[in-house]
Amino acid sequence: MPYGNYCIEYFFLSLSTGVLCFSELFFIKEPHDVTVMRRDAVILDCQAHGESPIDVRWLKNGVNVLENERVYRLSNGSLYISEVESRRGDKSDEGLYQCLAQNKYGAILSQKARLTIASISAFAIQPTSIVVTQGSVARLSCKISAHPPPIITWEFNRVTLPLATERITVLPNGVLQIHAVQRADAGNYRCIATNIASRRRSTEATLTVTPAPSPQLPQRPHIIVGPQNISVSLHQNAILECMATGNPRPIISWSRADSKSIDVYSTKVLGNGNLIITDIKPQHGGVYMCRATTPGTRNYTVASANVTVLAPPSLVEWPESLTRPRAGTARFVCHAEGVPTPQITWLKNGEKVHSNGRIKMYNSKLVINQIIPEDDAIYQCQAENEQGSVLSMARLIVVMSEDRPSAPRNLRADTVSSSAILLAWDRPLYNSDKVIAYSVHYMKAEGLNNEEYQVVIGNDTTRYIIDDLEPARNYTFYVVAYMPMGASRMSDHVFQHTLEDVPLRAPELSLTSNSPMDIQVSWQPLPDKLSRGRVTAYRLSYRTSAENAVSQLELPGEKTQHLLENLQPDTIYLLRIVAATGIGWGEQSAWTSHRTPKASIPLAPELRLEPLNCTTILVRWQLAPRNSAIVQGYRLFYHEESQPENAPVQLRALDNTHTIGGLDPRKKYHVKLLAYNIVGDGYQADQTISTPGCVSVRDRLVPPPPPPHNVYTKTNSSTAIFLHWGRPAFTSSHSVNYTVRCNPVGLQNASLVLYLQTSEQNLLVRDLEPNTKYEFAIRLHIDQLSSPWSPVVYQSTLPDAPLLPPSNVKVTLIEEDTALVSWKPPDEPNVAVMHYTILYASRHAWIAGEWKVLQREGSITMALLENLKPGQVYLVKVSASNNMGDGPFSHTVELTVRADLSSGHDPWHSRGSTHSTAFSDGFYHLDQKSMTGITVGVCIALICIIICAFIIVCRGKNSTSASTAGHLVSEGQAESADVTVPMISQNHFLDAKNIKHGTTSYQHGTTVLTFEEELSISPDQPTTMQALLWRPSDTEGSSTSEGSHATGDSGRYSHDETEMTNLSSGPSSRPPSLTAENSGGSDCSLPAEEPGGQLEESQTDLKSTESAENGCCLHDTQSGSQSALSL
């Protein structure tokens, strides 16, 4: 009972570790990695439980451990080493240890345990002396290799520094950071590394501090040391360093590129911006971004790094114990995960399993066919990577049945043809009446890891013709009889050879010319599948393209090349070849053309073609040794046989390989390559190649393998993208290759598609264009089978930091104290601009290093410089920036502000200037769509106003009481000015045929239409209204002032559109005379409910108002001959 309870307890324990338990034999304790001091004693645990007797022995690096007085096995199976030795070679005790336990059911192998002797090496990187300015940052580093990892401290003038203070930070990886360096920090520093083995001190480095320049100029943030790509083992700590400079001191922040939140429980900031991730887990992997930002601004710079979390193997699917009859089939499945991907190894009774005709391994599966009694054993699945190993076990029990039939007898094989063999046999001697079927098994007799094929036939015959064999091959055969209770033993094996046949096709020709009068013809021997026997002879035929007479040469079957000499230069020749076996001649190849060279052009390259898979060809070449002509590039032509030739692929002179992808399987392609220079095209090298079949004749019914899945892309640079994908779950013992297709989205030229080959499940695609969106697809190739393309994934490269400054920087003075600066984006492609920075300062401020800073979004190419002082010369420069960094500043542009020569100062103009900043900011935030909407609205309103004005004028001319109304208005004006302007509201207008007339009304937030028409005026008519409402001096001054308010940072300023821009700016952008001073005495746009509130004051101060040139709305009533719309 205790034994049963113990096994159950271990069973549940093993579920968490990925090892299933069965009572016959299992481990209670297994060895683990250990680090010890030299000459210390160590015990490597190993305890096995199961049916006695159990024998335990130890392996070191796969070889049995020889026991002696110093190294011996304890009674419980553990290994004891009394004094650990660290001598060189095999005499050292360091290595990988495993224990092997065995009883009558079989043997099992423990996990691997590494024994490491504590040590510490010399410093790989010593700290170096540096010179820094006062107030800046200093960084010293050292690097050393040790087991276990050392603790690193620093000494300043032989005194130990604290690990962390407000200014000083010591990182665990050996980096010393000093911020806000002071003169007292100058001195000698050295690095101390300590572990259980020893302590080492580095050489001393001197830190020299120089005085800082005064005054200190503003400095953009700059990351002097950014994070580096690292790979960290599970549960270890990751250190991402980030150190930046700038004036003022930048603020450092961290984020993830995938926008996921950073784990605050396992992550902390060490010092002034370094990120430490403790107890790292798989979810912590990804791209981390360090951002250094100037406080209070949007000036920043970014550096990024990728963190890869390495994990030991863990089993997600375990093999299960099986009970199978003899001649049956057993399948064990084992699937593991880890980073990097674990390799699966199968063990039988502690020894590695090798594939043969009966036993096959398909990646994570072990399949045993035609089980025999010797297959009864304990099988283990071992998953291993750089981080460790894990094992799981299962037992195969073979059941023997006594009433099964005996094996078929007298198996015979006779050759029928080059692809067929007749098998015949006699029925089993015992229980032949119970046989329900026979299975015929055959495979190639030569080579390793040949696949075994099986055909099942009924019990009514003992003869069978196998007709899908390859010519001229040796095969081995055996037969098994089946009954309801199981299968018989295998019959005796017989061997038989198929007959030869004529070659299936001709070799592929490769043609080059070493001189203008020869052609070097070469070819590769036919593979066995195509030769269908031993090739005894070749026949080479050639002629010129202009003649029909054909010359022929017969060459022995051992030759693979021939030189045709005494040919005509600059002539097209046609060549073809045919191969023969002892049976006869095969099929001739198609005619291949080749032009012999002419002088002064490059000779033909030496061309080699290699099929990578059934849809891809690798083209390799090199210049002919005797070539003396200059090569400017290559042109590659290829086309399918009997198809028109494609446009050439242009290649650089430095290229010597090219991959042709997207081809059809089992097709013949003609490939031509020539070099060219300024004289013309060189001599071409021609070769024909056939793509292999994706599905062989025998496996024509086998579906293609599934495509790779879980394709994942990421990028942390502007020229490279990293791809990772998963291998689909299918069974095969052959190696797997992948083709990666890469091209920019929307590419029209198919010849520019990039095809890359790899055998790994990840690839870093380099030399890409910045800020470009790419599409990727992956297909798999295995044993001449190709999968479909995987679903397309998209990824964009990051933009480059601008390398050029903004162009066409111009500065224009638009008011006495306001200037407009405009520019164009940098003249470089594929560069995204996130924002622009404008620096400007007067010459005196520039000498003192005091710049004023403005920033505008990347879509804005204009800004206002306000509150400029008269009589000063200003310097202006602009730079472009994006997430990858800041670009250079443009050349400095000078602006001279004129001195203010007027004795007086216009109060309205002054007030407008004080509010211009707020106005500009409001206009600055209008985006392109808002401006378009406003412009369209203004145009529609103008059209409506013109139509209304036209109707008003027409009605006025037809009015019969116009003259009387005109005289009444004139008399009203002459008697008192109090009733002139305030009484003219939005619902009243004056009309007269013989006077200059105008209507006006202004209400807050409403539209005002002013229409004026110049008509004849009688000299004796009163001019009071004219004096009040029309003053050209007011019109000119007000127009200029309003224009300054209407100019924003939208990049659309125009002097000709000054007034219209002001009118379209909205109620929030009105000049202060219409907004901020509505309650003042100069405001004539009173509310409608108080039409006469200040008439008397207006009449009294009329002359003072005119002298002050404050036109207010009186000026707006008659401002020349213009129409104005105010929103």
UniProtKB/TrEMBL annotation:
Compartment(s): Membrane
Subcellular location, principal: membrane
Transmembrane segments: 934-954
Region spans: Disordered: 1032-1127
Domain Ig-like: 23-116, 121-208, 221-308, 313-392
Presence of the UniProt keyword DNA-binding in the record: no
Annotated Fibronectin type-III domain residues: 407-501, 503-599, 601-700, 707-800, 805-900
Presence of the UniProt keyword Transmembrane in the record: yes
Listed Polar residues bias regions: 1116-1127
Membrane topology field: Single-pass membrane protein
Record SUPFAM superfamilies: Fibronectin type III (SSF49265), Immunoglobulin (SSF48726)
One CC-aspect GO term: membrane
Low complexity bias: start-end ranges: 1035-1044, 1064-1073
UniProt-listed GO biological process terms: cell-cell adhesion; negative regulation of neurogenesis
CDD domains documented for this protein: FN3 (cd00063)
Pfam families per the UniProt record, alphabetical: fn3, I-set, Ig_3
Gene3D superfamilies named in the record: Immunoglobulins
Family in the record: Belongs to the immunoglobulin superfamily. DCC family.
Role of this protein: May play a role in anteroposterior axis elongation.
Entry protein name: Protogenin
Gene name in the database record: prtga
